[in-house]
Amino acid sequence: MTATSTATSAFRAAYGQAMALWPVPVERLEVGGEFGTTRVNACGPAGGPPLVLLSGGGVTSAAWYAHAAGFGRTHRVYAVDLMGAPGLSVPAGRALRTPDDLMAWLDTVLDGLGLNSAALLGHSYGGWIALRYAVHAPELVARLVLLDPTQCFAGYRASYLLRAAPLFLRPGEASTRRFLAWETRGGRPVAPELVRLMGLGARDFRGAKAVTGPRPDVARLGSAAPPALVLLAGRSRAHDPRRVAAQAERTLAGARIETLAGVGHHAMPESEVTELDRLVTGFLAE
Fold this sequence. Notes:
Elements (H helix, E strand, L loop, with lengths): L8 H11 L7 E7 L2 E8 L6 E5 L10 H8 L3 E5 L9 E2 L7 H14 L5 E6 L1 H12 L4 E7 L10 H12 L3 H11 L8 H13 L23 E6 L7 H11 L4 E5 L12 H13 L1
Parallel strand pairs: 3-4, 3-6, 6-7, 7-8, 8-9
Antiparallel strand pairs: 1-2, 2-4, 2-5
């Protein structure tokens, strides 16, 4: 099978500039499978416990630059470019269309990395994938960390969806910059390198549609639920963090839930870095 990508040279250059923000050496891995070739950016000690990072929609794995050093001190970090989304993962072979396909794709990624189990950490849409995967294969998820996860415990605010509409109607750098400036107003902005990468990704991968579905059925986990940490963005405009916290407490048994005040949804992977590193690495070490 032949793998093809819609990434332009401009997108690849912007991807490289965003990856240059990582303060530690990065090993670039290509994991093949029935859905294509998945790009994984790895760092940290080769023998460390595995931590798989799943970014938000349209962001790419480059978004984890602020935590590469912190997480990589204790874990072997695998930051994954989502298949079928902006990034350097290349679809080929079997099409990825349904949530079950998405779970099968992540199965192949973990298997290709030689992981019998791993801690999963997802932000936004990546949080939805991570939580659904915990329901799909709880025996493979050692610990679960969700950073302001969307469509897991509450829906989007109507105002957020309205503001996001231009991203689909006129995808590109200008609409991405305006949207992120609105969502992060009053808090830490998203790094310019990531804003540019997201804008070019929205343009180059315009035909890509995020594979999504209903909220993960966490009730199916029961006693098999992995230890979970839910960190919410106190200034999130994507949803109401109080509603998310209340529903997570009701449905995700035993989860530790905390809210980081003053943090926006999209800038969360870049905000309160020391505190977030402390909370996540402390939880993973328990």
